[in-house]
Write a structure and sequence with these properties.
single chain; 454 residues; alpha/beta; FAD/NAD(P)-binding domain
Length: 454
């Protein structure tokens, strides 16, 4: 019954505590915020989450998926909204068995906390902000903001899951040879809201992720269990960068109203509190974080956003963090109680893959805001679907590799680049997928893509 400390009771920290409890460890989780189930605080970020294969697998491994499924809404594709108000659906998978799930970040976090409390060997300590650590003494120091008191605890094994603004990582940065890089996008995001109809029904297609792509910016909407949609506007910060299409320019209600009437006219009637929400809700930041090493000897390990925060445009931040928990669980099986080996193996396995999903997420921002409405992109997607049907174990769409399979992210990135080259070659001067040269396609695929072990 070894004691393990987890810093952070967010999504990854809560899930990891269940993994560890099921292995027989005593787990103490220290969370800087108050208990969100008892207060009106947010979950820290506003963007709804897209739960997919990697996250689902982790939840199933600890027996939590059936409960989480109850607060999830399946989304079978992207519903693209054009400037003239027409829409079209771009399916995510080859059939209705392949979909992603919209889930509220706060509701998911609350549900995980509820489930955590079913394990008597896990205790969550709220209002405990990590302020320092002394690895030589195996001690952590916390400040209780509610009681204005300081605490220090003995912690031979600590796992940091305290998010992109990780306090533990800040302490790690003081250690020699610790590499750290953070990159902010010149884009922010603003949460908006589409309420349900008076009878509680949805105002738009329920089972889709809605996107209004506008080239250099976009609006998205994901369904909620109460019939509403959480909308997110992704827009440049600075006028010098994007002119009128920037948060800096949209500094009064008339400008915001005109901006939406010009770019998203079909949303005006859907969002009665548009102007109030726009100025009441904060503008969030988008950041990619990379660092290494993630561990110090067998004493401390970082995972999830604490070690590899990414932008949200592939819907993989939570899924990657949950996959971290699954991989760490297997590393513990491989090296029982040998924490130095466990942590070393974990970071060796995960670092290349989290770097890969960071790159994939940045690429997908361009696709979502711009390319999804382009004829050349749509042609490539049709060719891609045709090749997938002919070569189902070889030419698997990049989105499917990342979202519906659990192959390493690094493999999906590598194969995705090769497949894009093939699609580019096959789509040259073609008007439809029926016009492609299948012999040329066969030659390119067999030369460049080995079969996958599905």
């Amino acid at each position: 019954m070894q004691n393990i400390t987890i810093v952070g009771a967010g999504l990854a920290g809560s899930l990891l505590s269940v993994y560890l409890a099921k292995k027989g460890f005593n787990v103490n989780v220290y969370e800087r915020r108050p208990d969100m189930r008892k207060t009106g605080i947010s979950a820290g970020k506003s963007i709804n989450l897209a739960l997919s294969a990697r996250g689902i697998n982790a939840l199933k491994e600890v027996g939590l998926y059936d409960e989480i499924k109850k607060i999830s809404i399946p989304m079978y594709g992207r519903r693209i909204h054009t400037i003239d108000g027409s829409t079209n659906l771009q399916p995510y998978g080859r059939d209705l068995s392949e979909y992603i799930n919209s889930v509220s970040r706060s509701e998911l976090n609350k549900k995980l906390m509820d489930l955590v409390e079913n394990f008597p060997s896990v205790k969550i300590h709220f209002n405990m902000r990590c302020i320092n650590m002394d690895l030589a003494k195996d001690e952590l120091y916390f400040y209780n903001e509610a009681q204005n008191t300081e605490h220090h605890i003995s912690s031979p094994v600590t796992i940091s899951a305290d998010g992109a603004a990780s306090a533990v990582r800040m302490e790690m940065m003081k250690t020699p040879r610790f590499d750290f890089k953070q990159e902010y996008e010149n884009y922010g995001y603003k949460e908006l809201h589409i309420p349900p109809n008076n009878d509680g029904t949805f105002k738009m297609d329920t089972n889709a992720l809605h996107i209004w792509p506008r080239g250099s910016f976009m609006l998205i909407a994901l369904p909620n269990m109460d019939g509403s949609f959480t909308c997110t506007l992704f827009l440049a910060y600075d006028k010098s960068f994007a002119g009128e299409n920037s948060f800096e320019f949209l500094n009064d209600k008339s400008k915001v109203q005109q901006f939406f009437e010009k770019n998203f006219p079909d949303t005006i009637s859907l969002m009665p509190a548009l102007l109030e929400d726009f100025f009441a809700n904060p503008t969030g930041t988008l950041i990619t974080i990379k660092c290494f090493p993630w561990s110090i000897e067998g004493k401390m390990l970082m995972l999830g956003d604490a070690s590899h925060a990414i932008v949200p445009f592939f819907g993989q931040g939570m899924n990657a963090a949950f996959e971290d928990c699954s991989v760490l669980n297997k590393c513990i099986d491989n090296h029982p109680a040998e924490w130095n080996k466990i942590f070393s193996e974990f970071q060796t396995l995960r670092k290349p893959n989290t770097d890969a999903i960071a790159e994939l997420a940045q690429e997908n921002f361009i696709e979502m805001r711009d390319l999804v409405a382009e004829p050349s992109y749509l042609l490539k997607k049709k060719i891609e679907a045709k090749l997938y049907s002919i070569y189902p174990d070889t030419f698997v769409p990049k989105y499917s590799m990342v979202t519906f399979l659990r192959m390493p992210y690094s493999t999906a990135l590598k194969r995705g680049k090769i497949q894009e080259e093939i699609l580019e070659e096959l789509s040259k001067e073609k008007l439809s997928p029926e016009n492609i040269d299948l012999k040329q396609a066969d030659k390119l695929i067999k030369a460049k893509l080995p079969k996958l072990d599905l």
